Amino acid sequence: MYMKVKRLIDIIFSLAGLIVLSPIFLLLMISIKVDSRGPVFFKQSRIGINKTDFNILKFRTMKIDTPRDTPTHLLVNPEQYITKVGKFLRKSSLDELPQIWNILIGNMSIIGPRPALWNQYDLISERDKYGANNTPPGLTGLAQIKGRDELPIEIKAKLDGEYVKNISLWMDIKCFFGTIVSVLKSEGVIEGGTGEVRKEEKERVMSK
Q: Mean pLDDT across the stretch 165-194?
């Protein structure tokens, strides 16, 4: 029952978001175009519900000669590829705003496991253990407020599974406001590495 309500919430909020944020969209589009060569938007194949493919939308933050379909943390010296405007967009997470369109058309939800790249086989496989590939991916989720890029894959997948197991309006509200706090603090954003969590934190999460 809640999944139908969740979809209705997604439609209402994504439509409102596109309208209200349109001036910001325009400003960012102009900034990206002035800053570097290439398109304003970046499309990338991601894994959606039941492991179906869809094209995620982002504001372009990297130069056009950046290797495609390679997670940023696997690039050698990723800073060389990130544009000046892109650095700000990634730190503030504003590069994710175009995914509001993905939410509106049903590829994604506001809250859910972040969609994996098609070639992130280890993450996809780990999520299978928890049924986390069988729910709509989200703009943000439980893993994003618990460490984001700092989390090892096994912990990230476990948190995604915890979200799916406890999916509810309260869980979505918790993730939504937790994301706002994380973005304001720029928590968990790492370029060029998957990051490390403290040993005791890893053991605590894995023991749940």
A: 79
- C-alpha angle with apex 43: 39 to 46, nearest 5 degrees? 165
Comparing 34 with 202, which gets the higher pLDDT? 34
Count of all residues that appear for the chain in the document: 208
Q: How far apart are CA 155 and CA 200, in angstroms?
A: 13
CA distance 97 to 83: 17
Instruction: State the total domains in the chain.
Output: 1
Q: Do 205 and 159 form a contact (C-beta atoms < 8 A)?
A: yes
Q: Which domain holds residue 93?
A: 2-206
In which residue are the tokens 């599974």 written? 161
Tokens 């969590």 identify what position?
197
78 φ/ψ angles, rounded to the nearest 5 degrees: -60, -25
Report which DSSP code applies to 82.
B
Amino acid at residue number 53: D
Query: With contact defined as beta carbons under 8 Å apart, do 142 and 170 qualify?
Result: no
Q: What's the pTM value of the predicted model, to 2 decimals?
A: 0.82
| Tokens of residue 170, six digits | 């309260």
Provide the pLDDT confidence category of residue 137 given band limits of 50, 70 and 90: very high
Q: d(Cα 126, Cα 138) in Å, to the nearest integer?
A: 17
Q: Average pLDDT of the chain?
A: 86
